[in-house]
Amino acid sequence: MQDMFIEMERLLRNGLSPSELRIEDFSEQHAGHSGNPSRKKRGTHIRIFITSPDFQGKSLLEQHRSVYQIMDPFLKEWGVHALELKTSIP
Fold first, then answer.
1. Range 52-80 burial, b when 16+ CB lie within 10 A, else e
2. Weakly modelled stretches of the chain, pLDDT under 50
3. What is the C-alpha to C-alpha distance for residues 28 and 51, in angstroms, rounded to an integer?
4. What is the pLDDT of residue 82?
5. What does DSSP assign to residue 77?
6. Any idea of the CA torsion for 12, 13, 18, 20, to the nearest 10 degrees?
7. CATH level 3 topology of 2-88
8. Which residues make Cβ contacts (< 8 Å) with residue 53, sequence separation at least 6?
9. Edge-to-edge, what's the strand order for the sheet holding 82-88?
10. So where are the chain's domains?
């Protein structure tokens, strides 16, 4: 599971050159819910705080789309059910 978070960070840093990046896993809070029926304590619910100069001139929706584009493999292949984003411009 740690590999997943290392890869997330690597891709986000390479794709968006953030000045600040924090990735939190809050899967345990959702253990047993429909998005985490097997009660996994890691890797299903992810919160990302990211500040990037690449967001300059983009709407909040465009900022989130930029992150979702990078995170797409994690949603489709790694079992991430929920992705919560907080984006900002430095």
1. beebeeeeeeebbebbeebbeebeeebbb
2. 36
3. 26
4. 84
5. T
6. 90
7. GMP Synthetase; Chain A, domain 3 (3.30.300)
8. 17, 19, 89, 90
9. 20-25, 45-51, 82-88
10. 2-88
Tell me which residue has tokens 């690449």: 54
Tokens matching residue 57? 């001139």
Residue 73 tokens, joined: 């493999």
Q: Please calculate the CA angle 88-82-36 and round it to the nearest 5 degrees.
A: 155
82-88 and 45-51 beta bridge pairing: parallel
The pLDDT value recorded for residue 65 is: 96
8 Å CB contact between 46 and 83: yes
